[in-house]
Amino acid sequence: MAQEIHDMVGHTLTSTILQIEAGKRLLQKEVDSAVARFKEAQDLVRHSLSEIRNSVHLLRGPC
Asked: pTM for the full model?
């Protein structure tokens, strides 16, 4: 389970960095596309944070 969480966090952070970099490049030329990239990055982080929380709750077991 710890490996899965580690992989999920690593994937999320890497994907988010790529989305932010793409957004930064587009910001000078295509503002709407840049904003869309930033929103995708934001959505990815929110979704992944939810998945991480669920995994941590599973690790804790019944309360």
From this structure: 0.68
- As a whole number of angstroms, the distance between CA 23 and CA 33 comes to 7
pLDDT digits (tens, 9 = 90+) for 2-53: 777 778 788 888 888 888 888 888 888 898 888 888 888 889 888 888 888 8
* Domain 2-60 belongs in CATH node 1.20.5: yes
For the chain, give every domain's residue range.
Answer: 2-60
DSSP string covering the chain: -HHHHHHHHHHHHHHHHHHHHHHHHHHTT-HHHHHHHHHHHHHHHHHHHHHHHHHHHHHH---
